Every structure is written in C-alpha cells, then in structure tokens.
Amino acid sequence: MRVAIGGFQHETNxxxxxxxxxxAFRMPDAxxxxxxxxxxxxxxxxxNIPISGFMEKSQAARDDMVPxxxxxxxxxxxxxxxAFERIAGMFAEDLAAAGPLDAVYLDLHGxxxxxxxxxxxxxxxxxxxxxxxxGVPLVISLDLHANLTEDMVALSDGMTIFRTYPHLDMAETxxxxxxLLRAVMxxxxxxxxxxxxxxxxxxxxxxxxxxxxxxxxGGLDDLCGEGVCSADFAAGFxxxxxRDAGPGLVVYGDNAAAVERAADxxxxxxxxxxxxxxxxxxxxxxAVAQAGNLARGGKPVVLADAQDNPGAGATSDTVGxxxxxxxxxxxxxxxxxxxxxxxxxxxxxxxxGGGLTVGLGALTRM
Length: 366
Fold this sequence. Notes:
Strand content: 5-15%
Distance between the termini: 50 Å
Number of strands: 9
Structural class: alpha/beta
Strand order of the largest sheet: 2-3-1-4-5-6
Order of helices and strands: EHEHHEHEHEHEHEHEEHHHH
C-alpha cells in the first residue's frame, strides 16, 4: 500500500508556566528536532517510538511510505496558537503534495492542549480527514496518558495506545497500529466503541507493574476474539485541565454487539478499580526519613519522581526535596535534575573539583 506517515507530539500540563512555541518543536531534545519529508524515515528508524515500529512493519511489507513530518516538544504548558497552526499547515502542505494514498498513519500523543483549543489532536485529525475524505483509512497511535476525545475516535479509523508505564512498548504500539490498519483495510473493523469513566487516575497510580493497572493492561488481549480485533485503555493525563481529561478506552472489530460487550466489560473493570487508584504520597520530610532508615542497610536509596518526565511538564527547578535533605542533615546525597542555567554556568566556571556558594533553583514564580 501507499501510506503517508507522520507525527506531532506534545503532553500539555495546563498548570505549568512555560508554553510550547514553534521553536520548542524545532529544537532537538530526548527526541529529534522537527523533521520533514525525506529526512523522517532515516531519522526515526530504529528508535523505541511508535512511528519507528510502524515503519519497520511497513518496510517488511514493502509498502510505499510517504513521509510527511514528525515533531515533538518537551512537556510544558499550552502549545501556542502560532506553533499549532504552522505545524498543522505543514501537514496540510505535505499531504496535498503526497499524491494518491491508500492510508495515513499518525504518531500522536493524545494530551495536546493549545492556547485556542482543548483537543489539539482532534483539530489536526479534522483538518487531515477533510483533505483525504472518508474513504482513506487513517490510523493513529497514542500515549498511555492520552485524554481520549470523541473527535479522536470519530475522525480516525483505529488507534493503539501504550500499555506500559514507564513506557517500554512505544515501538510495539506503532507496530500494533500497523496491524490494526491492515485489519481496517481488510474490512475487519466496521464497529468501534469509546467509554470514558467519570474520574481521574493520579499519575502516581498509573504504574503498570502494580495493581490495578497491571491487571487492566494485562487483560486487554483477552478481550479480543470473535468479532473483536483490538482493545486499548488510556489512563489519561490529569494535568491537562480540560473537559475530556481522564481515562478512556476504545474497542474495534467487525461485530458491533461483540465490540460493545467488550467495551462494557473493560469499562466495568475500570470502574471497579476506582478505589484502588487512590495513592498515598509521602511529604519530602517523610520520604527523606524513610530513605535514611533504608540507607542503614548499606545500599544506595533512590527517591524518584514518579512521573515519566520531571514534574510532568513542570519547571524542574523546585527544591523541596533538597530543603528536606538539608534539614535532616542528609549526607552523601546526590540530587538531580535541577534546571538552573545560571548556576550551571557558574559551576562550569569553577571547573571540576572547584567549589562555589550559589543559590539553586526556585526560579519560577507562578
């Protein structure tokens, strides 16, 4: 098949102070900088990211891949209107120049909120769907922290979602998106179902190695069978303060009744798990005290931020844990990561082994 591929990713914490402008998408970080056209395939090949898993399967099938663009920005506050419209415009230009297509695949996040609209992915899908029409299958992959919306489900023909947190299965999710696209093209996806439980799941309770997420994600394949070919669950991203924030699930297949039954079963499982999503958070003082007790065993102790990025899009310059360590006279402790460019520059000036006294962090005023 001749399939257009691309990606546009941002995880939006609407409580954070710094917005994602166009330069944030052009700048390389843990992921590549904005890449367009012929550069997409070599740049994204071999990575643990959804588009890479999709590409690998597509190449094995000897498809004709038509790369559009791929970009991401570090989690932060709202995507600026300028950034969204410029990047969406690039997608439109590249799709218009792509020629006849059999299908489209997009590597999205699912929690993008812009200055001027709450559902960034839905708006992008609406624009592209208008261009390709209803007859061209459009399949997407999403992060486990996606806030599913009716538009995302209605405007796409299928979606797959990460099943691990921390995210280990990103490329695998893209590969599943390829399989789902093939199912769509083979006529095995004529029904879809969306469910949205009416509560938020704390990020700290979304770890898939423990209950209840371990059982919810571990049982997804069991929902598939006669009439059902795909089922996925997004735990949601509560720091995006929008109407559709929260968990969601999608089921696809060629038997509407079976799809609805599978969706109801998973929905009921999620509702029954609500009480178990309650999580006890330690204060910095409690955490330092527990770490001190554990350290008496002679092994290092790690006090870890439970998010998959510092502060889930926040500033990374808070010093509450550092203050608790100092108050407890903590010794042989290493702290990372603190974002303070001025302090970092002074440390470089002092050089390896040098010493200095400097204020650290606490730069952002909300």
